[in-house]
């Protein structure tokens, strides 16, 4: 019996007891199906994060804040009359120690820092178009070099002298525009109150409409000229010291810097009393959480596959028991123990292949269906996100992994069959 005959015979033997084989294949299918979907979700979300990082740019920018004093000392923090606090402009919020002009000079002297700019924070009262309804809106800061994901228009020009702004897509219809394109070129009125309680308005030209995403897309993004104008208006009535305190600073470094050089820069900033995070660090935290969740889900899938492995052991042990005389006859006719071992392990691998292949195919169909349903519903606020994406290499690894587990499970009954004495087997009733 050559290799081809061995494979053909193994496949035929595995289909003798259809009920047992089908139940075992179903058990394997569940694990392979789960692995396919969980790995697909991980691939889809990570691809979206990677594409977001590449599209927004600003890979040479680091946001810097002061390291909290209680993080540097174990005991009580000594009072510093020259320090002040401001509200953090990061998602976690809370009060943090302010960045001052002295800090900006200190940061500029850190090796590897090319330039330092204060991160200006502005709180607008409202935005309005053509005397219509006033709406509350957050005003973000668009770091030079960073790009918004646009539904229409262009990026606000950081070097332009005129006041420009990009508005979130969710504001288009409420402000009274027919569609995204209709908003481009129109004048947006921004209301802002200074420290003395006087409310003023500043007009800006809408140059873009931003889509929602992991970074930005939910707040209006002004260019540098408009942000400075808003900040100056907001600072009227403040003391000179208060007007020159900031929640964070923006540090630029060599765009060709390696990961090791960036890590060194962060360490130098830490030693000087500052915490620095890049855009990749901020978005990368999402990736870490997703990878951890996927790892846990994959763990459950592997447990299901291991349980299915015991099903393969049981199926083949029963097959060996039922085919004892047949095994004895094959060995009496000259088939070696190695060939008998190969016959039963091939049966196990075929069952594993059958279950994993069906699991992968059904998983891909389920993932494709989920994408079409969710993209028009729950995930409609994140255009471009395919929740489930399939990597051919990952799918191949799943199939091979399942076949490997099936092979290991098949070795126990295969060894039992290979070691049977032909004379004793032929006498078996």
From TrEMBL:
GO CC entries: plasma membrane
Pfam families (alphabetical): FtsX, MacB_PCD
Residue ranges of every copy of the MacB-like periplasmic core domain listed in the record: 21-262
Topology versus the membrane: Multi-pass membrane protein
InterPro entries assigned: ABC3_permease_C, MacB_PCD, Macrolide_Exporter_MacB
Region (Disordered): 66-93
Segments traversing the membrane: 21-45, 292-319, 340-373, 393-415
UniProt KW keywords: Cell membrane, Membrane, Transmembrane, Transmembrane helix
Subcellular location field: Cell membrane
GO molecular-function term, one example from the UniProt record: transmembrane transporter activity
Entry superkingdom: Bacteria
Keyword set includes Transmembrane: yes
Segments forming domain ABC3 transporter permease C-terminal: 299-422
Entry's family note: Belongs to the ABC-4 integral membrane protein family.
Annotated protein name in UniProt: Putative ABC transport system permease protein
Species of provenance: Herbiconiux ginsengi
Lineage, top ranks: Bacteria, Bacillati, Actinomycetota, Actinomycetes, Micrococcales
